[in-house]
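Give me structure tokens for this 185-residue protein.
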Amino acid sequence: MRIIAGTAKGRRLRALKGRRTRPTSDRVRETLFNILGDRVIGANFLDLFAGSGDVGIEALSRGAGRAVFVDVSQRAAGIIRENLSVCGILDGYNVICRPVASALNQLEERGEKFDLVFLDPPYASGLAAQTLERISGRTLLPAEGLVVAEHHHKTPLAEDYGTLRCLRRRTIGETALSFYAVARP
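Here you go.
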């Protein structure tokens, strides 16, 4: 696993050992960031179920203004910090070690806003749909914000979650990316 582009291009990242964490593949990350394009530059980026932090670190490498990484695992939080250091990223980020639902509450209480939100929960957990529902009922996403959910292509997500509407889906091998934005009235 490596950073594909930007200031940290080519840097190798560590991943958690074991089968509980599945890093986003280089190919999927490349597709994601090709679709996002210049939206990443200067963006506040939220990486939920961050694991190794590969997606948020890729965003920072490509010019995101700030990234917040959320993962419940202390080991994952440690790996994220190590990977940020390896990439020479010393500031502009926050690592939150707590369950995603709790972190979303904390971030909303602080008045945080995110231009881009990425979530990659364990595929068979049902957490993608639950998290999209939670995000839709919050003030974390401005009107022009975008939420991207990574999921197994055979486990489709709904077209709508509360105020979020699916704009686009892209399948890469067995992985699917679903892009959501706040529906305009």
